[in-house]
Structure formats: C-alpha cells, structure tokens
Amino acid sequence: MTNSILLYEDNPLLRESIESMLRLNEHITLVGSHENPTEVKTHLQTLHPNLLIMDIDMPGMNGIEAVTRIRVTDKNIPILMLTVFDDNKHVFDAICAGASGYLLKKDISSKLFPAIEEVLAGGSPMSPSIARMVLSSMRLKSVPENPYQLTAKEREALTSLSKGNSYKLIAHEMQISIDTVRSHIRNIYEKLHVHSQTEAVSKAINEKLI
C-alpha cells in the first residue's frame, strides 16, 4: 500500500528536489505539487491525499492560512510543515492552527522520510522550543475566562456564597459592610443573568467562574 502526498512549496528548485525524492520511494505516490495552496480545498476533494507537505512562507496564501482553512472541514489529515527556522512564531502559529508537525528545510535530505513516517503514524515531529511554546499556550487557554466581567471582589463574594456562607459571614470575611455585600450580590445576579443564590452558584460552578 502506498501513501499519496500533496506538496506545496513556492521555491521551484526545492520543490523539484522534493518531488524527485518522493518519486524514488516506492511506498509514496505524489499526487500533486504546487507553488501555493490557494486551491488546496479542491485538491483535497479530488485527489484524496493521505498527507500534505506544506511550506509555511508562500505567496498568495501562506501555509498557516491554508492549515486554518483545511481544518474547518478536515480535522484529521496529517499536515507536515516545511520551514527554514525552528524557533520562529510562524512555526508556532502553524502548529496552533492545526499542523501535525514540521521539518526544517536544511534536514529534508536526511529526515524527510522519517518525518513522513512519524506523521502518518500519528506522531508530531517538533523541536523542544516549539513544544514548550505550544504547551505554554495550552496552559494559558485552560485558565478560566471571565466572560461576565465580574470584578475581583464580586468573584470573591461569589466564591464565599458558593460555600453557603451568609451575607454576614461574607461581610466578615471580606471586611466590608453587609450593604456592600448586598451590592456585590446584586451585581453578580445582573451580570450572570440569574435571580437567586442557587442559580448564581450553579452557573458559576458549571462555567468554572470560581
């Protein structure tokens, strides 16, 4: 069984070199080779490749834009990016957009086929520096957001409320007056679009606001 590959690279000499390498591998079928990915959706629908090899920097449409468009309709096809540098923001953006991994152009002659095998097996060839950037980004995105624009004091009051504390105890904990507590709770209800303590606490827990 052979794996069909689509190639996108704007440098004609490099593109021809990669084409030659791919055609020498009996386990690979090159089904298309293009200088940019502007027609990538059509190519995917008509050629049904197993893997895309794509340069990051291309005229017309760059690799990051192409990956973003592809992932709207196809979440699974492996996409191996080609790049000159392994520590720039473009690589990071491509991985975050949905690329499966990347290969440095200087390593194409020695690492192209191992990278293809790794990606097709479900792996993600990636340097440690880019891996750290991706993990850091994931951690930042996992932090609960504040879509209701609750203030720090309102979140503190809501957290205390979720523990079943009375207004008096909340006032004592926060060292504020009961009237101020009532004001905070009133604002919380308005911002969360709820009408009771039970609704407020339930929404806060379900949406990880506290």
Description:
The protein has a five-stranded parallel beta sheet, with helices on both faces. It is α/β, with parallel strands linked by helices and 210 residues long. Helix 7 (152-162) packs across helix 8 and helix 8 packs across helix 9 (178-192). The protein has helices at 12-24, 40-47, 63-73, 89-97, 108-120, 128-142, 152-162, 167-174, 178-192, 197-206, and strands at 3-8, 28-34, 51-55, 79-83, 101-104.
The description of the largest β-sheet is: 5 strands, parallel
Spatial order of the strands in the main sheet? 2-1-3-4-5
Instruction: Identify the overall geometry.
Output: elongated
CATH class of the largest domain: Alpha Beta
| CATH architecture identity of the largest domain | 3-Layer(aba) Sandwich
CATH topology of the largest domain: Rossmann fold
The percent range for helix content is 40-55%
Q: What are the segments in which pLDDT stays under 50 over at least 5 consecutive residues? A: none
CATH superfamily heading of the largest domain: Response regulator
Fraction of residues in β-strands:
5-15%
